[in-house]
Amino acid sequence: MLSSSVVALVFAAAVLLTTALKLWLLLRQQRHVAAHRGAVPAAFAATVPLAAHQKAADYTLAKGRLASAGLLINAALLVAWTLLGGLDALNAWVQAAVGADLWAGYAQPLLLIGAFALIGMLLDLPLELYATFGVEQRFGFNRTSWQLYLVDAIKGLMVGLLIGGPLVWAVLALMRSAGPAWWRWAWGLWIGFQLLVMLLYPLVIAPLSNKFEPLQDDSLVQRVQALFQRAGFSAKGLFVMDGSRRSAHGNAYFTGLGAAKRVVFFDTLLKRLDAAEVEAVLAHALGHFKLRHVPKRLVAFALISLAGFALLGWLAQQPGFYTGLGVRPSLVGSNDALALLLFLMVVPVLAYPLAPLMSASSRKHEFEADAYAVQQADGKALASALLKLHEDNASTLTPDPVYARWTYSHPPALERLGAIQARLAP
Ligand SMILES: [Zn+2]
Predict the structure, then answer these.
(1) What's the gap in Å between 372 CA and the centre of ligand 1?
(2) What spacing in Å lies between the alpha carbon of 257 and ligand 1's midpoint?
(3) For range 391-415, the mean pLDDT
């Protein structure tokens, strides 16, 4: 039996510890970037202008301030929803609103989760608006307008409702009627759902907000096709996405599964890089594919989710899990929706120690993909492309080493370019 006070204590301590740790890491990063703002690091002195370096420092600092505000708000919200009784109050309100007729048993959990998601979205909105129209705008990255932002938000809400609604309904149905081992079925459903989204995303969801046109530049098409032939790879098509409608940040990626794979270039990327550089960036993305980074991640994700669902299966049975987190469980009705919501709030806090492991494995994959790209394409072009993208995204060249080790999904530029150069040297 899980005691209520132990749950409350462990949760409060975990929120406090993770928030303090994240803040400490962020402050380290802020101090390091500010201290190195004055001069371009020696390794980049010939290639990066001082103005670009300082813009990157200022952008990193502005985003860091936003992130620390977000951290504190998030911690306060977590405590307000749980220990201070926010979720309990929402639950009581939904119960009163729905009443006790036949439908209530089905409508109530869905309504509770829907109301929680909607409130959460509204609470996140001010900081998100400030990020887009404040910070991104100030540094010249934002291209979206209020109208487009609103349209995107409504589309996002509809897609979330259409996709998330049935998923939540199915999980609740399993919790209700699949017996004590419901979590195994729910896990299977969850993995199937992830695969379905991966399949549908490029074909159905992405085109809702962006236009995809076949790549027109014939010489680039030929170049890319030659690269694919060398690498023994086939894709369904090469597309250009109008990323510039919303943001000046550039990217290129592979999407889709199996034979439906396609390559997507942001128009912003094509404008900035020359053909050899585009080819090198694509070779890097191809490296991720060839080295099976996506399935490896999927397997890790599936195993971690399985552990998560097993834990949820156990926690949902413990009265102390509810009362410890500030919720009075119903003694007669179902508490499934409450269990799901509490779990979704608790998991990111408890699983935070996994974060540095995930970023370390992601950085390892980036090094591997770079090594592959150097074999298949021009390594010098890859290095110059990375530097251009760094500059265009105003990514700092001088991150705090501890912060980078803990949080960076991509290696810092200095390490990355160093590794590429080492492979180029005879
Ligand atoms: Zn990569």
Answers:
(1) 11
(2) 18
(3) 92
